[in-house]
Write a structure and sequence with these properties.
Elements: E1 2-6, H1 11-22, E2 26-31, H2 42-46, E3 50-54, H3 60-67, E4 72-75, H4 82-87, H5 89-109, E5 113-119, H6 147-167, E6 171-176, E7 179-180, H7 191-201, E8 205-208, E9 214-215, E10 218-219, H8 220-232, E11 240-243, E12 249-250, H9 251-262, E13 268-271, H10 273-276, E14 286-287, H11 292-298, H12 306-320, H13 329-332
Parallel strand pairs: 1-2, 1-4, 2-3, 4-5, 5-6, 6-11, 7-10, 8-13, 9-14
Antiparallel strand pairs: 9-12
Helix pairs in contact: 1-8, 3-5, 5-6, 7-9, 7-12, 9-12
The protein binds uridine-5'-diphosphate (UDP).
The site of uridine-5'-diphosphate has 13 residues, from α7 and β8.
């Protein structure tokens, strides 16, 4: 099979590319290298089974030339990270709305299968203990920029669904919940690589708010396995799936665990949200996925523990230093 992976040089996209190549598939990666890095694809490119096209998903002619030779498209290219969305709202919206329109429409029009990456951000501030795929989306006002990301992801999901219901297209949507692991960068706000880099540098770990907010982290290796199962499962067509872990941890506890596992003597400091984020931020207390649908359809459950996730991120940060460890003190703090 020949797969088109948009955003294939990014964190999750590059792991998916590696996994596809490992099982004998060919991959065409389309990436504008804005947040993705060629380095993430070093191993995959060396196999000769991967072709990298550097360009934008906003370029319809380029996207058409990529979808023309692909059997399946994994659409992951997006502006991601709360910090990036708040700091560059216009560019993020255009890439996430227009870009998704171009990629999904192009692939469907040539009759191929499309899997669309969405996010737990879809649920907004719904505080239900268990978020199932049919849970309500509770978004704040348009004056709060954070909700633009949820709106953009919602657009992609509705578009994929409409192509399936009205044009019989083969589409699948999945929603990632706090995926972590090697190759994730802390430059756009993601907490795990930031804490690990801060701990390794002996800098204070910056817990935003009071640290009682909870998240369920999932190792990118488990996430990759989930996406591949959805690629191969005919019964997944037209459906939407949560991909995440059922194990919650508070951000305060995560900071202490990272300190323990790095053996760092860093301290933990609390940073008020208005100092941490640009205007337009609103915190989410908890995001906990109901995973029964993906388990039922594919048999998938995550296996790796939070300790294994932290250890893998530490090993990656150490192995890639100084390239992955920010030298800019502002970025560390
Ligand atoms: N966070 C933090 N310190 C940081 C970066 C993030 O305390 O240096 C917090 C952030 O406010 C949120 C949680 O960690 O409560 C997860 O943030 P991330 O951006 O990784 O994911 P999301 O907010 O999308 O769940």
């Amino acid at each position: 099979m020949r797969y088109l992976v948009t955003g294939g040089a990014g964190f999750i996209g590059s792991h998916l590319t590696d996994a596809l190549v490992a099982r004998g598939d060919e991959v065409l990666v389309l990436d504008d290298l804005s947040t993705g890095r060629i380095d993430n694809l070093k191993g995959a490119l060396a196999t000769g089974a991967v072709e990298l096209v550097e360009g934008s998903i906003l370029d319809r002619d380029l996207v058409d030339s990529c979808t023309a030779s692909a059997d399946v498209c994994l659409h992951l290219a997006a502006a991601v990270g709360v910090q990036l969305i708040l700091e560059q709202p216009l560019d993020s919206l255009l890439r996430n709305v227009r870009g998704s329109d171009v990629v999904i429409s192009s692939m469907v029009e040539r009759g191929g299968k499309v899997l669309v990456a969405s996010s737990s951000e879809i649920y907004g501030k719904n505080g239900d203990v268990l978020l199932s795929e049919d849970s309500d989306r509770i978004l704040g006002p348009t004056s709060t920029s954070r909700w633009a990301y949820s709106m953009a992801k919602g657009f992609s999901e509705f578009l994929a669904k409409a192509y399936t219901s009205e044009r019989d297209a083969d589409t699948v949507v999945f929603r990632f919940f706090n995926t972590v692991g090697p190759r994730q960068t802390g430059s756009y706000g993601m907490v795990m690589p930031r804490f690990v880099q801060q701990a390794l540098a002996g800098a204070p770990l910056t817990v935003y708010g009071d640290g009682t907010q909870r998240r369920c982290f999932t190792h990118v290796r488990d996430v990759t396995e989930a996406v591949l199962r959805l690629c191969d499962e005919a019964a997944a067509t037209g459906k939407t799936f949560n991909i995440g872990s059922p194990h919650e941890i508070t951000i305060g506890d995560l900071a202490h665990k990272v300190i323990e596992r790095t053996g760092s003597d860093s301290e933990v400091i609390m940073v008020p949200y208005d100092e941490a984020y640009a205007e337009g931020f609103e915190e989410i207390g908890c995001r906990h996925p109901d995973l029964s649908l993906i388990r039922r359809v594919t048999g998938w459950s995550p296996r790796l523990t939070i300790d294994e996730m932290i250890d893998d991120v530490i090993a990656y940060s150490v192995a890639t230093a100084p390239a992955a460890v920010p030298v800019d003190a502002k970025e560390v703090a």
